[in-house]
Amino acid sequence: MRFAQPLLLTEQLRPCERANTFGAIVRLWRYRLGGTIEPMPGAFDLDHSMRCKGRTRLDEVVAELATRQHGVVARRQLLGLGMHRRSVDHRIAEGRLHPVHRGVYAVGHEALRREGAWMAATLISPEALLSHRSAAALWGIRGDDRARTEITVPRALKRRERLQIHRAELAADEVTTHDRIPVTTAARTLLDLAAILTPQQLERAATEAEIRRLGSPTSLAALVARYPRRPGTPAITELLANRDIGRNITKRELELRFLAFLDTHHLPRPSINHEVIGKEVDCLWPDQRLIVELDGFATHGTRRAFEQDRARDRALAVAGHRVVRITWRHLTSEGHLVADQLRRLLEQRAAA
Question: Which of 94, 199, 237, 245 is the most exposed place for a label (fewest CB within 10 A)?
């Protein structure tokens, strides 16, 4: 049953093409099911034997593979589909394949989005993974506008233009795929970043990872125990000990997170930074007389701010308003509970 679709595809071919094309399509289908495409032993010029007028059936198979890989393919994959080396070189000469790295090509055009550039970097070796700052950008926890892409491989490779190559043996629970790109897990990415970022930059990246709820098979604490002598381990240890994740998030960032949180849980949006009895409140539902104050460490982290906040809460309560305080950690760690509580508070006053 797995190969029903390839069989149907071959029925559309001429009898002389069918036998040769079947192997290429089956190999591609296995790739789509999670396998790899490697050179076919004793490969012959399948492309020449399949050629009709204009574009060949093999071109269509290659185009589908490129679509799944953000517009790029590796030479070993083309050979694995049955394309002869001469056919690969012919397509390069014709401008149908555009070299990105040695043995890696953009299909059809040279312009690649950043996902294509990342994928191309990982295709230079079957064992290459996106890592460090490039992995952080893929995960969305830290921007990276540098021209070079960072990858990690288990054995030394020659230097490549536009690539920064790291060498490390990674455990199976430290690697994954995201958006079909082989990459280090979020936790492993943070461990790698810890060796090259400042403590503040690392904390921001860790906060973003937690806000995005990026899970990993292994925790940061487990990786610290696994690699006690890695350059980034002391920074991660300090980050975990001080519980600094979320410490430097700004008020505006917290407001945007809260609005997105409300949208996700289908709760009505409040008025933002509204004035009530001469005091500016973060979020107000006037009909329900409900106020939510968003507590970030940057604006509420001192003892004086703590006392002032409680005095404000009392004054607002006397004026007939209910005040609820929510932190970024509530949103990220107790999101469903917070959403349920807010929904009940809004319904209570609406029904009164």
Answer: 94
Distance between CA atoms of residues 222 and 105, nearest Å? 38
Q: What percent of the chain has pLDDT over 70?
A: 77
Taking the C-alpha atoms of residue 114 and residue 35, their distance in angstroms, rounded to an integer, is 24
**In this structure, what CATH number is given to the domain that contains residue 324?**
3.40.960.10
Compute the distance between CA of residue 119 and CA of residue 193 in angstroms, rounded to an integer: 20
Same domain, 96 and 172: no
| pLDDT confidence bin for 245, thresholds 50/70/90 | low
Q: Which residue has the higher pLDDT, 106 or 253?
A: 106
- Asked if residue 118 is part of any domain, the answer here is no
Residue-wise pLDDT tens digits, 62-77? 999 999 999 999 999 9
CA distance 284 to 23: 64
Say if residue 317 is in the same domain as residue 257.
yes
Residue 143: C-alpha distances to residues 32, 38, 163, 341 (Å)? 30, 34, 17, 35
Q: Is residue 18 domain-shared with residue 65, that is, in the same domain?
A: yes
Q: Write down the pTM of the prediction.
A: 0.62
Structure confidence by residue, pLDDT tens digits, 175-202: 999 999 999 999 999 999 999 999 989 9
Q: Which residue has the tokens 């990872």?
A: 209
74 and 147 co-located in one domain: no
- Phi, psi for 237 (deg, rounded to 5): -60, -45
Whether 229 is in a domain gets the answer yes
Residues 82 and 155 in one domain: no
pLDDT band of residue 19 (cuts 50, 70, 90) is very low
| H runs (alpha helix) in the chain | 4-10, 15-32, 46-50, 57-68, 75-80, 85-94, 114-122, 132-139, 186-193, 199-211, 220-226, 233-242, 251-264, 297-300, 303-318, 328-333, 335-351
Single-letter code of the amino acid located at 92: I
- Asked whether residue 90 carries a pLDDT value surpassing 80, the answer given is yes
* 181 and 156 both lie in a single domain: yes
Are 36 and 103 found together in one domain?
Answer: yes
Secondary structure (3-state) at 126? coil
